[in-house]
Amino acid sequence: MASDDRRTIAALAPLKLSGMHQWYRWGSISDGQAVAVRPGIGRGSQTALLVVIVLVPGWLLCAAGVWPLLVATVAVIAIVAGVVVTVRAGLPGRAIAPDLHRYPEIHRVLDDPDELRDFRQLIGLAERVGRTLPALDGLIEPAEAGENLAQAVWDGAKLHVRRQEIRVVLDDLGDYDEAKLPSTSRAVQNLVSQRERATELWHEVDGELARLTANLEAAAEAGENFIRERDAGEAARRAEDALAKVLPAEFADPAVAGEQLADETVAVLSAYRELTDSYGSHR
Q1: What is the mean pLDDT of the chain?
Q2: Angle between helices 186-244 and 113-132 (to 10 degrees)
Q3: Whole-number Å distance between alpha carbons of 252 and 239
Q4: What is the pLDDT of residue 23?
Q5: Averaged over 28-51, what is the pLDDT?
Q6: 107 contact partners, CB below 8 Å, separation of at least 6
Q7: Given the DSSP bridges, would you call strands 2-3 and 29-34 parallel, antiparallel or unpaired?
Q8: What b-and-e string marks burial along 5-20, b requiring 16 or more CB atoms within 10 Å of the CB?
Q9: What is the chain's Cα-based Rg?
């Protein structure tokens, strides 16, 4: 995936980002995000500073007898290169899909503000799941789980693009006021029918997105709870061992922590079984 301030692109092909940007990787997903340009020294001030830095040493070299034409040529090249770098660094990053027009079927582009917001929330859930995968090795197969997670995100991108398209249709249908035409008009009847169909499709997509969100939420919470319970159990065991050296009496019942960890283990397995059933290789 690649995102800037105007759109997010999900693809089964390489993506790029121009300008200032950062790439993250979690699970089997690469997530690139453009970095907002921070206010600072203006480009004019940066260029003036660069000129001073280049010309002052150049003047000193000329005064020392170095060939002036050579010094001037190098100075001009350095200034031009510096200006280009300065201008490019000040430009906001942009998401780029080099193969979008050749292979549109493996790209999903979101640019509606509402869909972008909701999709980034979905990505936040998926990222939570992805960051727990290494700690769950032994309970699940992290590589397979990562592939299923990537498939879930891809399905989510497709659903949001579909809802984005339906949103455009609903907005277009909303521009027409059928009240100004007789109810027996064929055009009005067709308009109402299309609006009902678009609304029905909207609810269908909403339902699929709700199921996807619930699956990711369950997997994220199960993984995070397991890790917390495991870490707490290890801390309790360390404390018990330390206390046992100074007092013979036991201060904690390890079976209690073990039972709780077993419950969290069952929750993890259940959540990932659901994720596999919904987004596994059979899809």
Answers
A1: 80
A2: 30
A3: 9
A4: 92
A5: 65
A6: 9, 10, 11, 12, 13, 97, 99, 100
A7: parallel
A8: eebbbbbeeebebeeb
A9: 29
Between 105 and 80, the higher pLDDT residue = 105
Q: What is the longest distance spanned by two Cα atoms in the chain?
A: 95
Q: What is the pLDDT of residue 259?
A: 61
231, pLDDT greater than 70: yes
Closest alpha carbon to 148 in 17, 6, 277, 7: 277
Cα separation, 116 vs 156, in Å, equals 12
Extents of the domains making up the chain: 43-89, 112-279
Task: In whole angstroms, give the CA distance from residue 166 to residue 171.
Answer: 9
